[in-house]
Specification:
about 140 residues; elongated; mainly alpha; about 70% helix
Length: about 140
């Protein structure tokens, strides 16, 4: 079994599916009568991704690029499709496509984390044994 670093593709795919569902729900809400802001489509998705990043994958080096890439793509998509679609539908579509790019960049970027050093491998191997005692590294 090989050592896979970073975010596994199936996990990123599940997160992406959840974000697309959120964007679809937000498109439905934004199409209701009322004065809705385009930021309403962005907030739940950004909060969901931020929570996932904070709880599961704190790859700080790979964490900045996806946000920038996703925001740029979302902005460009919204500006491109806004004339053809109504504004309430353009924002969730742009966010969904931006999230797709953002998760792809993060999943690929998280695999480029620095490999563990020899010292961290020794400390990682020290842990409780089957008798509850910690193994001591031999030097």
């Amino acid at each position: 079994m090989r050592d896979v670093r970073g975010v596994p593709w199936p996990e990123a795919g599940r997160r992406l599916l959840g974000c697309w569902v959120l964007c679809t729900v937000m498109a439905g809400i934004l199409s209701l009568p009322g004065d809705w802001s385009s930021g309403t489509a962005v907030a739940p998705v950004v909060m969901t991704l931020a929570q996932w990043f904070w709880q599961r994958h704190r790859y700080w080096i790979a964490g900045g690029e996806p946000g920038v890439a996703g925001a740029i793509v979302a902005f460009l998509v919204v500006e491109a499709v806004r004339p053809g679609l109504r504004n309430p539908l353009a924002a969730p579509l742009g966010v969904a496509i931006g999230v797709t790019v953002s998760l792809a960049v993060f999943t690929i970027g998280s695999r480029w984390e620095a490999p563990p050093t020899a010292e961290s491998r020794v400390h990682a191997s020290v842990g409780p044994t089957e008798h509850g005692q910690a193994d001591q590294p031999t030097s």
